[in-house]
Amino acid sequence: MSWAAQRRFFILLIIGLAVVAFLAMVFIASFYKTPSCADGVANQEENGIDCGGPCKYLCAELQQPPTVLFTKVLDNGAGRTDVIALVENKNTNAGAKNVPYSITLYGADQLFIQKIDGSFDLPPGATEPIFVSGVDAQGGEQKIVSAFLDIPASAPKWFAVTAAQRVVPTVVRATQTGTELAPRIEAILANSSGYPLVNVRAIVLVYNAQRDVIAASETVVPTISAQGQSTALFTWNSSFSDMPASIEVVPIILLP
Question: What pTM was estimated for this model as a whole?
Fold first, then answer.
């Protein structure tokens, strides 16, 4: 092969390699997707499909689903019906934000009345109440006698969080005041953190001697100053259905 032929061969070879490299780059750019936590594939050391490892959310199958301890209908007089439920999160190192739920309301003989949808946060290792007040029983035509709370096992999007990462007010004391026909409960909430807490929701559950819930209510405490205390006040316009034996006040703080 002459020197000129060799020169042409090497030039064509270089051009061919450049074309192949260009085509390879086009192919990669068109068909290759960088691994992510939303690509539907268990890659990049994930524990499952788009969960665990470097991903924000934990794999649901590795967490315990929330447990609904009870759901109860409360008749608080004047035609007002409330629903109170208690949900337990047994995962001590995992929480979930904006967990969807549905409450199905029934009348006598399991007659369907309506379904209520909502969402709430599930803190780690906590038992969290859900309180729905002033439920409309189809304009009062049907009396609500029972309720069923459903949280699909796949609904919570679990992420790593511990109780130590949350600032939740403590309940210093809760006392019943008022009258028999207009009972009141006053709870002192303490903030141990170095910054104020604002718009703190609090839910109270009143139990009888058999540990059945006989009343519940919700209020909002506008501000609890840093290292300070504030009072959460709960009121009713009718007497309790039974003699109260114990009180449980649960401050509600959204997950970070």
Answer: 0.84
